[in-house]
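User: quick one, fold this
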Amino acid sequence: MRASVFVGTSVDGFLARADGTFDFLSAGGSGEEPHGFEEFFATVDALVMGRSTYEVVLPFPEWPYGAKPVFVLSHRPLPPEPAGAVVERMAGEPAEVFSQLAARGFGHVYVDGGRTIQAFLRAGLVERLVISRVPVLVGEGIPLFGPLDADVLLTHVATRTFAGGLVQSEYEVARSPEADPQAAPTRYSPGHPP
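Assistant:
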């Protein structure tokens, strides 16, 4: 199984305002032009998101995920899901959640929500990042990235620009030496010059 992130941020790196709203993501008309989300979404079998993200999306006039299973990470019972939505609560560390979903036959999972993305990145479970930066600075809010136990090395795949000003960069997440003992050294040392 593989996990990917496809997310929009402000240029200063915020997913949402402090109250969880993300109205600014339509800056420069970026919400009106296609930027690959539909194609990406067609490749995923399920979504994993945090409770805060679920509660932000819940009141939308139309459930945005169709009949794809949505797994919400929470220790508390969830509010009722919208009609037609397939929602299940899960709890546990990212590796446990990943293992449970793999055992259930899911092949490609879309990870969403600030803390959830950060936790899956720290656990070394995200393979692909697609980050769309919209042309706005918001100054404060919920950041895409947070503290890490070690560097997360990225391989640049592509950067695309759109007429409305959106700049989208795609990366593959390199496996860390801790996760893959056969990986080449990634830190400079006397025995491994740059």
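User: anything notable?
Assistant: The two ends are 33 Å apart (CA to CA).
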